[in-house]
Amino acid sequence: MGEFREKYMSGFGNEHVSEDPRCPGALPEGQNNPQVCPYGLYAEQLSGSAFTCPRPTNKRSWLYRILPSVCHKPFEPLNEGHLTHNWDEVEPDPNQLRWRPFEIPKAPQNKVDFVSGLHTLCGAGEPRGRNGIAIHIFVCNTSMLNRCLYNSDGDFLIVPQQGKLLITTEFGKMLVEPNEICVIQQGMRFNVEVFGETRGYILEVYGAHFELPDLGPIGANGLANPRDFLVPVAWYEDCQVPGGYTVISKYQGKLFAAQQDFSPFNVVAWHGNYTPYKYHLEKFMVINSVAFDHADPSIFTVLTAKSTRLGVALADFVIFPPRWGVANNTFRPPYYHRNCMSEFMGLIKGHYEAKEEGFQPGGASLHSMMTPHGPDAECFEKASKAKLEPERVAEGTMAFMFESSLSLAITKWGLQTSKRLDKNYYKCWEPLKSHFNSKRK
Fold this sequence. Notes:
Layout: E1 8-10, E2 16-19, E3 42-47, E4 60-65, E5 76-78, E6 97-99, E7 118-126, E8 131-140, E9 147-151, E10 154-162, E11 165-169, E12 172-176, E13 180-184, E14 190-194, E15 198-206, E16 230-232, E17 240-251, E18 254-262, E19 267-272, E20 277-280, E21 301-306, E22 313-320, E23 323-325, E24 342-349, E25 364-367, H1 377-385, E26 391-393, E27 398-404, E28 409-410, H2 412-417
Parallel strand pairs: 9-17
Antiparallel strand pairs: 1-16, 2-19, 3-4, 4-19, 5-18, 6-25, 7-8, 7-28, 8-15, 10-13, 10-15, 11-12, 11-14, 13-20, 17-18, 21-22, 22-27, 23-26, 24-25, 24-27
């Protein structure tokens, strides 16, 4: 990681200001776009919303850079590998689906960086219409060298599961480790450095940005607190790249590459409220039932991307962190369920309480719209007979869910090419037996 020392500013959606200490006074005073910027810099605005959005949803930042980002050769198509938004590759599959841990390529025989290691698992909607989501798996073993990526289609919520990521952005650097997440918003250029075999999950949303969920009667405090979100501080490099620096754009579901002869991470100072950010999942303030019954999993929502329908999410990011279980006279694990939403789950570490076997870190499951799901037979029998005392739940575990109001299609890679689909998943419910007795209540 060289000379990098972690330093961040805190606050979700704040108006931040930052300048690299090597160039004090790089931010213009009193205006955004002076005739001549300090240090001979160029002023460039990055807009994350329409100019006319109401103030609470208006997102933009001003970047003061050595050269503007427009200085590049024309974009040309780049092989996108297993990245796709083609939701008609294979026939729909309404079954309960579970994947074994996704395989990480071995280096040095097969060097794969973050971009080359992107694999689309499922999704719905269309980036050109600015409404939809995609769920990707990333597996890589080498750092991105003299190349960066930006997403013209939407925002990336990145969940590392194995291996830490040193992410360089136009706003500065973030070190993101397993049990942390980061969000790289639409249009932000970034590079990913890794330190060995690395794996994780990505939730991509088209047409909306992530927000903190409304708290309603919970009050002013709880769940993910705004001050625990961290934003990088300004950092720049002023360097020429004689062999060429590759800028990769994800545009309308395809990849395109353009060449330039300098690093894109040349922003000396910036200010605004449209930034990348990260969050540690251990900071989540958990709320749970303290009397009886099982609360709905919406109480574990970290971030939400709202749809145009009130109270309905385009996508929610939900976690199932360590917590106390104290509910009386209650079946404490997750209940059996059929849902009008799609539920994709991943496991960062540990053992998920409803299925302690089979659902492994680095794997995943998908329970599609109205497809029944719930605890396996072993979990049901154990929880039905357990002595109900206060107990720690999910100790040493972090499972999460990407939940969407869209009906998700599986890609060919997800169903076939990956060869990680567990075709025996349905068998975990087969041992469930009837306990019905009409003569005894």
